[in-house]
Design goal:
Length: 423
């Protein structure tokens, strides 16, 4: 997440500048060209994901001999630079991996194909987990299909809770309970209660959803006002002043590692699948617990696509491209190949086949317990949301260093909101 966040500002600028050349020109073939199809397929990831993806592609080709797939991958930053350039030049891959934060930017430039035209035929979506259905829709059109998903949770060290005499998190614990637990653990164990949760605007989003609001509205505006942001910032700033959260200097020093990986905090709010990463580095046993809420029965959680698969508006083979997308999200053997590499699998069949073990089995059980309580996935963020997330993180760091006041931090963020989203 750290590298991803650092790249948001550059990526957003690249997309705006380069996609401007796309406009609505260069319609794709709404009809497939006759004969065998050759598809270019691009995604981001490392060498491990590339090996898994090649196995999945080989399996697809063995079952669809008339479709040849030419794969390519880059690390996240290089991937989005290349994607913006290729899309602007009219040379986008037929099938591409997309990020929820940038889906609207590409769809607004008419760069993506409406997959609803293939749904029920070459694209099967009936087995998607309920929380992921419709996650790639914008304005009634389907521009991306989730290839994995995860939700917000609380990862914690139960031994420190026991040492401090604090009850472990349970359904219905409140934000006051959360802050009291952090404070008590810090005072009684000498280990910081947690990270500075104001540093992630997904924690703000969680609170807003619990209140019946959104981080971004359906029409692409910010979903909260200055007073609400000031309240949120003050919560975290007070904990930092009291020494309850890990000092920002230490957090920055250990990046890209997370404090839980180095046993520096008792718990933190994060995407649930991060449990596996944190558990691998930590000496202590870690568990996954419920998020705090002041609105009993309304946790504010949803399944967020960890990534999506989209099809270029310019593809000459939309049917073949849709078949590839459908295969990658539905086939049980693909679920076994990837496991949780792309986030937990998006369909029931793939989750059943994935053979998740250890921390990932705990994550799957956590999501299964919540499945009937998930809220609707929020609308795709507006153009510029990635840059705003980067700004939010930077401003929060300045606040924790004590270089700006809460009021100044709020003013800075809303100035950037106006410049990025307009009034």
């Amino acid at each position: 997440m750290g590298a991803l966040k650092r790249f948001r500002l550059l990526a957003a600028a690249s997309v705006v500048a380069l996609l401007a050349a796309c406009g609505s020109s260069g319609d794709s073939g709404d009809q497939d060209q006759a004969g065998p199809a050759t598809l270019r397929f691009s995604w981001w990831g490392n060498a491990e994901r590339a090996e898994l993806m090649q196995r999945a592609v080989d399996l697809f080709q063995s079952r669809n001999p008339d479709i040849k797939v030419t794969p390519s991958f880059q690390e996240f930053e290089a991937y989005w630079q290349k994607m913006a350039t290729e899309t602007a030049g009219g040379n986008a891959p037929d099938v591409l991996q997309t990020d929820f934060a940038y889906l609207r930017e590409y769809s607004d430039r008419n760069a993506l194909y409406d997959l609803k035209e293939q749904e029920g035929g070459n694209l099967e979506l009936a087995d998607l987990l309920p929380g992921l259905r419709g996650a790639g829709e914008i304005g009634g059109k389907l521009y991306g299909v989730p290839a994995g998903g995860n939700t917000w949770g609380y990862v914690y060290n139960p031994a420190l809770f026991a040492q401090a005499g604090v009850e472990e998190p349970k359904d219905g614990w409140t934000w006051d309970d959360y802050r009291r637990a952090m404070t008590t653990i810090t005072r009684k164990t000498g280990v910081h209660g947690g990270g500075a949760y104001i540093g992630s605007y997904y924690n703000l989003e969680l609170q807003l959803r619990q209140e019946g609001r959104l981080l971004y509205t359906e029409d692409g505006k910010i979903g909260f006002d200055e007073a609400r942001l000031a309240e949120f910032f003050e919560e975290g700033a007070a904990l930092a002043r009291d020494g309850v959260t890990l000092p920002i200097e230490k957090s920055v020093q250990i990046k890209p590692a997370h404090p839980l990986e180095q046993d520096l905090v008792a718990g933190d709010l994060a995407w649930d699948n991060f449990l596996a990463r944190y558990d691998k580095g930590a000496r202590a046993e870690l568990r996954l617990g419920p998020v705090p809420t002041d609105h009993r029965g309304t946790e504010g959680q949803y399944l967020k696509p960890s990534m999506l698969l989209s099809v270029s508006r310019r593809t000459k083979h939309p049917a073949a491209a849709a078949k590839l997308v459908s295969f990658l999200v539905n086939d049980p053997e693909v679920g076994r190949i990837f496991g949780a590499n792309r986030g937990l699998p998006p369909t029931n069949a793939q989750r059943a086949a994935a053979r998740l073990e250890g921390p990932l089995a705990a994550v799957a059980a956590y999501e299964d317990r919540l499945k009937d309580r998930f809220g609707r996935t929020p609308p795709a963020p507006p153009k510029g949301a990635g840059a705003l997330e980067q700004s939010f993180t930077r401003i929060c760091e300045e606040l924790q260093y004590g270089r700006v006041s809460v009021d100044d931090a709020v003013d800075q963020f809303f100035t950037e909101v106006e410049e990025t989203l307009g009034s």
